Amino acid sequence: MCYVKLGAKSLDTSGRGIPFKFYTAYYLSFYSRRRAKTLRDLLEGIKAADKNTLFHHLFHTIRSKHLIPPKYTNDFAHWVGEEVGDEELAAALSDISGAEPATIEDIRREIVEILEPHADDRAGRSEFVFVAMEPVVVETNYVANTLGEFLDMLEVVPGESIVYHFVTRRVLDGAGRNDFSTWLEKNFGLAEVAESLSRIDPLMYNSEEALRGDILKTLRRWLL
Per its UniProt record, what InterPro entries does this chain match (predicted)? Predict the structure, then answer.
């Protein structure tokens, strides 16, 4: 693998002249009427839940700013492990991939495939409550025209902005690729840099800052 080392002049160019405008998103969550008492109920709930509800249960951990890494990467795995007591199944659910090009429907299918053979009447100590969610997208004042500006702004934009562009747009909105990789390839032709970013799996992170750190580390390794 050959890293692209750019000089200061290259970092100051604007490529094809397409600016990157940062947005952020806040996620309004509220309890739904859907409940699961057993593994069978959980499976049926996952099949029936809307994509926003699934997104909440899979990705809210990255927005929760955990000081201690959680044992499981998503709420479904946590309930199966802690409430039902099936640690092997919980580990399998915790090991699902959120990497590109997966969308929320791709992840739903993977969860169903893992859970279906085990979906019996084993009950949790408490019910699983499905939480509905509605994202609210907000425009920020951050606009990057050059690679240098982009790197600088990635350090200071709200963590919610990182999650919106790297996770929400691809997984929930079905963009197919994170916004950062799309811009780097489209505006600068940096296909290898974009591909390296695209290999980062956001489900493996328990905080916005950890994700931001690895995105920056990847970009600096390629560009600086």
Answer: DUF5752
